[in-house]
Write a structure and sequence with these properties.
With 708 residues, this protein is an alpha/beta fold. Helices cover 51% and strands 11% of the residues. α13 links the parallel β10 and β11. α33 crosses α35.
Length: 708
Amino acid sequence: MFNDLEAALKHFFGYDSFRVGQRKIIEEALNNHDLLVIMPTGGGKSLCFQLPALLKPGLTIVVSPLIALMKDQVDALQDNGIGATFLNSTLDYSQERSRKQAILAGKIKLLYVAPERLLTEKFRAFLSQINHSLGCNAIAIDEAHCVSEWGHDFRPEYRQLQRLRSQFPQTPIFAFTATATKRVQEDIIQQLGLRNPHVHLSSFNRPNLYYEVKLKEKNSYYQLLQSIRQESGSGIVYCLSRRRVEEIAFKLKHDGIDALPYHAGLEAEVRTYNQTRFLRDDVRIIVATIAFGMGINKPDVRFVFHYDLPRSLENFYQESGRAGRDGGTAKSILLFGSGDLKKVNYLIEKKPDINEQRIARQQLNQVVDYAEGTVCRRTIILRYFGEKFSGNCGKCDNCLEPKPIEDWTIEAQKFLSCMARCRERFGMNHLIDVLRGSRNKKVQQYGHHLVSTYGIGKETSVDEWKMLVRSLLHQGLISETNDGYRILRFNKRSWEIMRKEREVLVAVSNKKLSKDNNKYNPRQAEAEILYEKLKILRKQIADLQSVPPYVIFADSSLKSMSHIQPKNEAEFSKISGVNNHKLQQYGDKFLSVIQEFMRSQQLPKPLPSKSQMATLQLHQQGLNLEEIADQRGFAMSTICNHLGELLEMNQPVALNQLVKPERQKAIIEAIFKHGDQSLKILKEALGEYYSYDEIKLVRGWWRSQHNN
């Protein structure tokens, strides 16, 4: 009938070409292979079973978990002139009888049913009748993650779908879902009895989505209201409970925001009415529990707010993914408050099955790891699904407002050593207890109060240790079991840290968590004091000119001045926000304050340690970095740390032998632009062709020149 698949696509659906991955899946479906397809929301999963159904003789059965989803897809198919129908509890006897007659008459190509109906004896007899007279050409199971207790929306009735394999042994089964970890993929294959399935895994990355976590304020409703007022377009607000949904929807409506509630406790007619009004843009906001959204085809949702904590990262990914299905810019914002943890834990404790409780707690902890994470949020999400991402997505709060980077290599080595002493059989909390010298029963029960790492981390707080462990997990420097127990394990990168071949850089969330919190940091203190002095000068100039202070210089420019501390006009001109005009107008005044401050802050230089002096002696003997590292038994990064610190102390290190002058120049320019506090920011600015070691060395020299 059709010369090629593109002609069929155009005929039935009006599209000229397939999306990425669709054609291959359709070809395999036509060749009757079992399939497992993981494709993100909005990726075009439905077409992958709908088009083969139209090109093969017989009927395709589509298992769908939601009545709303069935109606949505059937309406769309019928609107294209395609024979499709559904059988569910919304139909009366005569409607159901009429549809069954149409099916047996061969007028229907796609039949949508819920798993509960599919498994009844009466309906299975009807399916046998269909198979005998028409042939059942395929069984497509939508939202297949529901089959797995490791998935985000486990439904026990989905477990029984494996009976379909015995009833229709020759019929191919297609499993489709938007999200599935490796564990869930294996569970789907096993539970559905898929035979050598062809697995198609698309990227989980949604590049058009911006991710942000906001600390939940005391008046969280007002915080939400203000945030919604700042957004345009349609949005979804997810809440944990029905009561909260009703409360937030009522308040939003009262405050002039068109909003409606959606949850399973509402009458079916009300849910349908509210959903329809949202889909048709009659209202701007839908406030909902997780009951809303699975398979809803509204492409232009511009933002999703999670007012309460989602129960798992898969829930979060699915729900946030309902924004921006049209590929346009969209936002996912999570309001995170520690009080929410108590509510979710309460719900977990109500689960009757201990195993389900254990899995639910692991899933909750993974959400907390995301919320409290300091690395690229996209990296955290994609790593959860087993997908690598280099970080620096430029579209999350952590990337756009990066936290200060600190070297936590020593602490990481302590933690890994403790993991090894405890034989890689425990999770984060227990290992932290051992490191901090806890006397709790579990530590003593396992004899871990006797291991060599017991108490070696007392000076580091529990929150600091947790921050480090989360960073190690997010960076892939340690591994974790996915069985509900969250046991930490070594991987290849872990051993590199232990062998001093890899350093550990951690984004520190705030001063409270900084490992230097209880130590006096003269450089940071200097910068903060100078910043306040520069703000006073800026205010004086602004008042004289009757303009706001930011007209003179932005805060970011003042912060750069306080960190870089330019010594002359040439250096001052390189500060971001300083152009020729401002240099002439304000340069002398600001340089005068900076130089006066620097004169008042002359600090005695520290003396090199014995280890640093040993490195210096080998350097002066003409050994290169590799030779020094080999002779001293240290990693190259450690030797570079020594030499960078020696340069900062103005010791006789030959920088030109270590870093070529033209590369020094580029690094110095980056320091002038971005400051010298964050190695990560400098590395990102310079690109992959510059190493951390080079940057450390040049930064050491630069600091020696600007501390005099």
